[in-house]
């Protein structure tokens, strides 16, 4: 497997067996690398990301915390958690949530979440700065295969939120979240827009007044 | 509108108003350019494409024509036809079909097919050589918005056929065509694979023996 010691292309899908993928992602050099596996191919994404990405990443987590708190929703939130279906799929979404009855289903000490044992997260979110085309294409197929309930993409450059309801192995665009019932996605887009003009403290205060 | 006189980037989505898009796509220099418009952005794809693309393009058309003739299905086939929803969307799929009761709905003399007047095609196909990521992502969203019944992608490099059933503004992967009832996607993939080893005459004869 000498090919694995040569530099592997990042931010693109590369053919690999599951075992080759595991070997790569377990290397110490890839401790900070985001790993995805789907349909016989792997994708490595290198952290760290830039300032616009990290800000929108923070805004979306903050907004959903506020919403869950004000509506008393049970919530289990994950930042860059790895989900693994051994031999088939792996994903490391920027943000992911278990909600309601699922909010206490993952034990505190679980590291990589084994989807042969635990359910898929209810909501996964990818914050897309340079990865938008892939997030809309291949990762949509990946999250359909994993059977999450909702998949959101934050298009940082266009300040848009694209939300998909996943059902039956497929998905469709929605304007209202089903997993965060009553949450208008236009409100989150407005929060993202406001964060271009004011700091996160002010955006949070505005959001609280709207929720 | 000076910007349209400079060279526009191709094979990527570019912010543009509908009017800007029309001006660009109507230029004589773009007579051979494939044009797409969706969500306030345009995409120009430059023909001609290479040999593997053109061969798979040919096979899928002939395979479907064979299937339709053997099964007595009414069919209206289009190669690189432009579909336009004024002010909103435009697409120019590699291959597209109207079937059954829709097979005679488009008058012969029609040039660009106006989707405010006519129904969207029942099936659109993109043959993906270099455009795979976009065909799986943005174009899937575009064809969901246009409301075709089925969208297929031929992944030339991996010799795969990916078929989506479109419903309710969303879509899901299918293994059996709904618009060509009884047509197994695995059979078409096998025809694509065989065409790597034998000429199109032999592949057609094999296909006929299978229908």
How does this structure look, described?
Two copies of one chain form a homodimer. By secondary structure, chain A is α+β, with helices and mostly antiparallel strands. Chain A has helices spanning 18-25, 51-71, 132-136, 138-146, 185-194, 200-210, and strands spanning 13-15, 33-38, 41-46, 75-79, 83-85, 89-91, 95-99, 113-114, 123-128, 150-155, 160-167, 170-174. Chain A folds into two domains: 1-47, no CATH class; 50-210, tt1808, chain A. Chain A is 30% helix and 27% strand. Chain A is globular and about 50 Å long. At the A-B interface, helix 3, helix 4, strand 11 and strand 12 of A face helix 3, helix 4, strand 11 and strand 12 of B.
Key structural traits:
211 residues, three-stranded antiparallel sheet, 12 strands, homodimer, tt1808, chain A, globular, alpha+beta, 27% strand, 6 helices
Determine the mean pLDDT of chain A. 92
Strand order of the largest sheet of chain A: 4-7-9-10-11-12
Indicate the percent of residues in helices of chain A: 25-40%
In total, how many beta strands of chain A? 12
The CATH class label of the largest domain in chain A is: Alpha Beta
CATH topology of the largest domain in chain A: tt1808, chain A
Give me the secondary-structure category of chain A: alpha+beta
Oligomer: homodimer
- What is the name of the CATH architecture of the largest domain in chain A? Alpha-Beta Complex
General form of chain A: globular
Percent of residues in beta strands of chain A:
25-35%
Strand count, sense and barrel status of the largest sheet of chain A are:
6 strands, mixed
Number of helices of chain A: 6
Q: Tell me the distance between the termini of chain A.
A: 54 Å
- Rounded radius of gyration of chain A (Å): 17 Å
The low-confidence parts of chain A are none
Largest interface: A-B, 18 and 18 residues
